[in-house]
Inverse folding.
């Protein structure tokens, strides 16, 4: 039996990124919007594939800025200074072309607020010039529409530690799913995937986990490929929901239950206190997780040691140190 908590695969996962976030001087003003968290830290763990849709469609650097304009419900991308110039078709066509060739990516990080790359809340101007924050960049829109399972996030939202952990989590889950799909969908590997992700899913939504389990148990006679598409769509959707301290405490207590016969009173009390302190916001999640991992290394449990929850992403990213 493997005495270690099972480790994730160590290949570098590919993620798409808006080029200006990696320091490329491709913005309308000739500058960049380098994001040091992405470019310094995440780059050590992921292979980035950069895209600048505006440069890709032939716009110059520097160039006239563009913006979204609402013409009676028809949203267009127009020049800010010269509103007669329309880039909508070109940006959509480029986005459409890229969106169909992203099988190698496991996530995408977009530049916020951009009429090309913004994922949400991009300013849309009424014809009288009044802006509302309810638009999506034309490039980002195509990427998301054609790749509904692909985890996406904006660089601004990655400053939120919960959203950051959530995004990276989804990237790794999606990568494991693609690996499974490439090895061939079967009832047994679907069940194995579901089992390995049990506590991760429970931390997000107990009900969805149980519903999916029931559907998996009744799989006979069902078209397995169609089922798998719906299954992973449900998994990716539920993982987008924020896990909170209460749901994590529930999962941590369940895991501690597997150690009931192995720990003496002091060790058990130490873990339990750490879980309670985490629940009250006194400790970050990494504290009870580290204690549990320590005890499961010394007291291996075949079921728990395969749980993604205990090791969902590289520890060096320290994603559980601030949540
Ligand atoms: S936001 Fe997108 S289109 Fe604008 S400069 Fe960055 S990569 Fe290019």
């Amino acid at each position: 039996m493997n005495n270690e908590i099972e480790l994730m695969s160590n290949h570098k996962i590919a993620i798409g990124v808006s080029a200006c976030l990696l320091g490329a001087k491709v913005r309308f003003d000739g500058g960049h919007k380098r994001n040091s968290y992405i470019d310094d830290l995440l780059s050590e763990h992921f292979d980035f594939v950069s895209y600048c849709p505006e440069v890709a469609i032939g716009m110059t650097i520097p160039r006239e800025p563009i913006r979204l304009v609402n013409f009676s419900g028809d949203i267009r991308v127009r020049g800010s200074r010269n509103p007669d110039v329309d880039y909508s078709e070109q940006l959509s066509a480029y986005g459409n072309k890229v969106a169909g060739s992203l099988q190698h990516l496991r996530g995408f990080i977009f530049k916020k607020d951009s009429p090309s790359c913004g994922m949400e809340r991009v300013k849309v101007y009424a014809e009288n010039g009044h802006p509302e924050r309810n638009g999506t960049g034309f490039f980002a829109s195509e990427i998301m529409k054609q790749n509904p399972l692909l985890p996406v996030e904006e660089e601004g939202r990655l400053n939120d530690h919960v959203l950051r952990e959530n995004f990276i989590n989804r990237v790794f889950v999606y990568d494991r799913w693609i690996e499974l799909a490439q090895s061939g969908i079967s009832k047994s590997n679907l069940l194995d995937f579901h089992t390995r992700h049990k506590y991760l899913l429970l931390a997000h939504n107990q009900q969805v986990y149980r519903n999916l389990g029931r559907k998996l148990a009744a799989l006979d006679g069902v078209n397995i490929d169609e089922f798998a598409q719906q299954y992973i769509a449900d998994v990716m959707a539920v993982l987008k929901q924020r896990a909170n301290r209460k749901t994590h405490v529930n999962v941590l207590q369940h895991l501690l239950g597997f150690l009931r016969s192995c720990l003496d009173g002091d060790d058990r009390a130490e873990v339990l206190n750490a879980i309670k302190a985490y629940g009250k916001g006194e400790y970050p999640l990494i504290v009870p997780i580290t204690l549990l991992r320590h005890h499961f290394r010394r007291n291996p449990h075949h079921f728990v040691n395969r749980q993604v929850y205990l090791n969902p992403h590289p520890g060096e990213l320290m994603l559980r140190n601030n949540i």
